[in-house]
From TrEMBL:
<dbReference type="InterPro" id="IPR011009">
    <property type="entry name" value="Kinase-like_dom_sf"/>
</dbReference>
<keyword id="KW-0675">Receptor</keyword>
<keyword id="KW-1003">Cell membrane</keyword>
<dbReference type="InterPro" id="IPR000858">
    <property type="entry name" value="S_locus_glycoprot_dom"/>
</dbReference>
<keyword id="KW-0732">Signal</keyword>
<keyword id="KW-0325">Glycoprotein</keyword>
<protein>
    <recommendedName>
        <fullName>Receptor-like serine/threonine-protein kinase</fullName>
        <ecNumber>2.7.11.1</ecNumber>
    </recommendedName>
</protein>
<dbReference type="InterPro" id="IPR000719">
    <property type="entry name" value="Prot_kinase_dom"/>
</dbReference>
<dbReference type="GO" id="GO:0004674">
    <property type="term" value="F:protein serine/threonine kinase activity"/>
</dbReference>
<keyword id="KW-0723">Serine/threonine-protein kinase</keyword>
<dbReference type="Pfam" id="PF08276">
    <property type="entry name" value="PAN_2"/>
</dbReference>
<feature type="signal peptide">
    <location>
        <begin position="1"/>
        <end position="21"/>
    </location>
</feature>
<feature type="domain" description="Apple">
    <location>
        <begin position="341"/>
        <end position="425"/>
    </location>
</feature>
<dbReference type="GO" id="GO:0051707">
    <property type="term" value="P:response to other organism"/>
</dbReference>
<dbReference type="InterPro" id="IPR036426">
    <property type="entry name" value="Bulb-type_lectin_dom_sf"/>
</dbReference>
<keyword id="KW-1133">Transmembrane helix</keyword>
<dbReference type="Pfam" id="PF01453">
    <property type="entry name" value="B_lectin"/>
</dbReference>
Length: 797
């Protein structure tokens, strides 16, 4: 900072000691500033601008904008993201003499940050924080004359109304750039920008693209089909001679949502859940964390099956455990022990030479170089004799790697997978070679034993590999084709039965890698093998957090089996209706209902081809280890074809969830699932079956529900085991939603997309009418002929 600038800063503090305390609530003018704990607050109270830190122990402070109505400090824009200040009382955000908004650090007499806009000398400027989170620097006398705005200079958050654009005249492209880690807003390695062809891409290190949105088709980007529902946002796509950009706006201004370039290399849409005071992930791409380039850094290995996803390969440890703890794995791993390198058979004993650690079923690293050799042994020697070689693989040919290894992934069954040999110091691996002289006889005996053992090991390894290959052949790089004998083995001849349903029985199994699976044996299916494979392959491409993922299948002769992830908490019915010491609390029930709705919305509205489940009931909702709901058996109607309706209507208990269309023989649409969902939602609320028959008479709970909802007494429907411990606003909302879903006429029922909005609180839910069918069952409260189990305390006066 030059003497002149330092003098200006000094004079500012000397002549204006009281200016800071008197600035306007949402703006900074030439006579006002921000320092210390002072803040700007937008007129509507949505956003705050001021100094903040994410690490109180580091004394690193930043000027940023964050949500005022969110309890968790969530910055959406940062000015000095790479240059923090250490003392906010000696730092000043003000309008500089040239009209720009500038951040000064008086303790070191330095200009830290500036808007750097071109402003005429006779213009007076003002900085205003708007209620949409946009900080605007404009002409003080003409509000339409804007010199700079934060929404066009984003950091890692894409706010509603903003755009990430390509200026075709200058060639400059705006970017979202991730934070370095969860506490450091400095620019990270991952960024999002728009390409010249009009599609957005996520890049690693501003160089390598690993995900794109696809092209704009007039309604959505081709690789983001979720956009087609359009229930949450309105979209604008512009491509003209000057610029190319996309923009979105939230339909409901009360929704607090943000789109971010996350520190983990994924673009994410998050929604603030006020009830639980946390951000909920609504959408992310790429879906698989291990698809992010170099996510785990050098010599780091990614594994989708583990919670942390990243680990160091054998012989390596985290370079920076602190960074790993903050979600930044880019530093990767470093060797525990130095390589001997350079040593050869003449200059070093065998025990001192570097050795190779074998990793099977891994995605091979990037940037491998092919060598022309004739054997696995020659490939190993080629790597061993080059000090820069860190790994080799021998498959279709010899491939070696020099320097850091990036993009390793374990338990990988893709086409670019294989066996990798990583170079380690000899001491990292156990030695099987003895040093010293032995007699020729002993050596011969040892050699013979070694040969015999090697042959046995070879035979066993070949057998095991063949079995594994048989059990894990891929279809289009996604689904696994299992042999029936393999499934017999992993399920111990189908001895552990989990349950039975409309389409067959389900058994638990454990794969060779200890992964628990659920195997469903389909019964009564006469579909041909070719058609079955085609339909199952289509279902295997469907991925959603609230759908049970299909892992593979078996088709041999008349045998048809499907393989899914095992869900440790079983089905929803076991927690609602069966005697259980741990009763699901209301928060869990509401979260489960919302998750089911999102899963069905995905099947109906977001898949390339609409999928109608046709058998929604608690038995077909599974719960994972965290009690997250997973819709099971989706797509089986498609698989079973003509057999489906017969199987469905003949199954005991299922009839209670069937929409009138089934009984009347009308065409089945997604609204049939909506009806079934409504029936099940009533059971989630009440903890009792909708229909119950006993010697004392029948009980049909939807009649009771319709009456109470119509009387604004939905609280009476709540499961008595909860003892009233529930969010009554949610009870009221969900009860109304359920009664809208079970209307007789399908055109009166909402779509599942609308149901999601209702449960999320984005759409007001009015009192639904009592359906014609239920009106015929509505009776006087004192008439016990239908045995309606309505507590006396809930009758209206």
């Amino acid at each position: 900072m030059g003497p002149a600038c330092a003098f200006i800063v000094l004079m500012f503090f000397l002549i204006s000691p009281s200016i800071c305390a008197s600035h306007a609530s949402d703006s900074i003018t030439t006579n006002q500033s921000i320092s210390g704990k002072q803040k700007l607050i937008s007129v509507g109270g949505n956003f705050v601008l001021g100094f903040f830190t994410k690490d109180e122990s580091s004394a690193k402070f930043y000027i940023g904008i964050w949500y005022k109505k969110v309890s968790e400090l969530t910055p959406v824009w940062v000015a000095n993201r790479a240059t923090p200040v250490s003392d906010t009382t000696k730092s000043l955000l003000h309008i500089s003499p040239d009209g720009n908004l500038a951040l000064l650090d008086q303790s070191i007499n330095s200009l830290v940050w500036s808007t750097n806009a071109t402003i005429s000398s006779n213009s007076s400027t003002v900085a205003v924080l708007l209620d949409n989170g946009n900080l605007v620097l404009r002409d003080a006398d003409n509000s339409s004359n804007i010199f700079w705005q934060s929404i066009e200079n984003p950091t890692h958050t894409w706010l509603s109304g903003g755009k990430i654009a390509l200026n075709k005249i200058t060639g400059v492209s705006q970017r979202l750039i991730s934070w370095k880690n969860s506490e450091d807003p400095a620019p990270g390695l991952f960024s999002l920008e728009i390409k010249k062809d009009g599609q957005y891409q996520i890049q690693w290190n501003m160089s390598k693209s690993y995900w794109t949105t696809g092209l704009w088709d007039g309604r959505a980007f081709t690789k983001v089909p979720e956009m087609t529902s359009g229930y949450m946002c309105d979209y604008t796509y512009v491509n003209n001679s000057e610029e190319n950009y996309f923009s979105y706006t939230l339909k409901d201004n009360s929704t607090i949502s943000r789109l971010i370039m996350d520190v983990k290399g994924q673009i994410k849409m998050l929604i603030w859940e006020e009830v639980n005071q946390k951000w909920i992930q609504f959408w992310s791409e790429p879906e698989a964390q291990c698809e992010v380039t170099a996510f785990c850094g050098p010599f780091g290995s990614c594994n989708e099956q583990t919670l942390q996803k990243c680990s160091c390969v054998k012989g390596f440890n985290q370079k920076s455990p602190k960074d790993w703890g903050l979600g930044d794995y880019s530093g990767g791993c470093v060797r525990n022990k130095r390589l001997h390198c350079g040593a050869n058979n003449n200059s070093a004993s065998f025990s001192e030479q570097d050795k190779f650690f074998q990793m099977s079923s891994v995605r091979l690293p990037d940037l491998g170089q092919a060598l022309q050799v004739s054997s696995d042994h020659e490939c190993m020697l080629a790597c061993l004799n080059n000090c820069s070689c860190t790994a080799y693989a021998y498959g279709a040919g010899c491939t070696v790697w020099y320097g850091d290894l990036l993009n390793l992934q374990e338990q990988y069954e893709g086409l670019d997978g294989g066996t990798l040999f990583i170079r380690l110091a000899a001491s990292e691996l156990p030695s099987h070679h003895k040093i010293g002289s032995v007699s020729g006889l002993v050596a011969g005996v040892v050699a013979a034993v070694v040969v015999v053992v090697a042959v046995v090991v070879f035979i066993l390894s070949v057998t095991i590999r063949r079995r594994r290959r048989r059990a894990f052949r891929l279809v289009n790089g996604a689904l696994v084709v299992f042999r029936y004998s393999d499934l017999q083995r992993v399920t111990k001849n189908f001895s552990h039965k989990l349950g039975s349903g409309s389409f067959g029985s389900v058994f638990k199994g454990v794969l060779l890698d200890s992964t628990a699976i659920a195997v469903k044996k389909l019964e009564g299916l006469r579909q041909g093998e070719k058609q079955f494979r085609a339909e199952v392959s289509t279902l295997g491409t469907i991925q959603h957090v609230n759908l049970v993922p299909l892992r593979g299948f078996c088709v041999e002769g008349t045998k048809r089996l499907l393989v899914f992830d095992y869900m440790p908490n079983g089905s929803l019915d076991s927690h609602l209706f069966h005697s259980n010491d741990n009763v699901l609390d209301w928060s869990a029930r509401y979260r489960i209902a919302l998750g089911i709705a999102r899963g069905l919305e995905y099947l109906h509205e977001k898949c390339r081809e609409c999928i109608i489940h046709c058998d929604i009931k608690p038995e077909n909702i599974l719960l994972d280890a965290e009690f997250n709901p997973k819709v099971a058996d989706f797509g089986l109607a498609k698989l079973l074809g003509r057999e489906f309706s017969h199987v469905l209507t003949s199954m005991r208990g299922t009839i209670g969830y069937l929409a009138p269309e089934w009984i009347l023989g009308l065409a089945i649409t997604p609204k049939a699932d909506v009806y079934s969902f409504g029936m099940m939602l009533l059971e989630i609320i009440s903890g009792k079956r909708n229909a119950k028959w006993s010697e004392n008479g029948s009980h049909y709970f939807p009649v009771e529900a319709a009456m109470k909802v119509n009387e604004n007494m939905a609280h009476c429907l709540l499961d008595e085991r909860l003892e009233g411990n529930a969010n009554m606003e949610e009870v009221n909302t969900s009860s109304r939603v359920a009664c809208w879903c079970i209307q007789d006429m399908e055109n009166q029922r909402p779509t599942m997309g609308m149901v999601v909005q209702m449960l999320e609180g984005l759409v007001e839910v009015t009192v639904p009418p009592i359906s014609v069918f239920l009106q015929g069952l509505v009776i006087d409260p004192e008439d016990q002929s239908h045995n309606l189990e309505i507590p006396a305390s809930c009758y209206s006066s």
